[in-house]
Design goal:
The protein is built from no helices and nine strands. The protein has 134 residues and is mainly beta. The chain has a single domain, classed as Immunoglobulin-like (Sandwich). The chain is elongated and about 50 Å long.
Length: 134
């Protein structure tokens, strides 16, 4: 089993005919003052089974760690991997939509996703100030 990708964005949803809609990819949030909130943030991942041993129901855990290493939240659940026709044995798309995410301090936050025995992390930097001019 492996995590093919993990993204942070402003919005994600299941599209039509098997597509996946992702809007506003991000890895940095600019805050005018602290504490701040990110009104819309989604964690998106594609997890793929590599062998028949990967099929079945797997434990899923999403955590957010603050700049000080403290766990800010944890969400647990399960994902079911079942055989699919085509080139991949099985794949599961995960979308976690988070509203009004509190960002109490500047620095690097980490989203940590664990599915079964595999893990991935994605940083989110919080910077006080305005984004650079384009």
């Amino acid at each position: 089993m492996h995590i093919q990708y993990m993204l942070l964005c402003e919005m994600a949803r299941e599209g039509v005919r098997g597509t996946f809609d992702v809007l506003g990819l991000l890895d940095r949030v600019y805050a005018s003052a602290l504490p701040a909130q990110q009104p819309h943030l989604a964690v998106v991942a594609l997890v793929c089974a590599d062998s028949e041993d990967d099929l079945g129901t797997k434990e899923v855990r999403l955590r957010l760690r603050g700049p000080n290493g403290q766990i800010m939240f944890e969400q647990r659940g399960t994902a079911r991997f079942q055989p699919l026709a085509g080139t991949w044995l099985s794949g599961v798309r995960l979308i976690y939509n988070l509203g009004n995410l509190p960002l109490p301090e500047a620095g690097r936050y980490f989203f940590e996703l664990t599915v079964g025995t595999v893990s991935a992390t994605h940083p989110l930097d919080v910077v006080v100030g305005q984004p650079p001019a384009a």
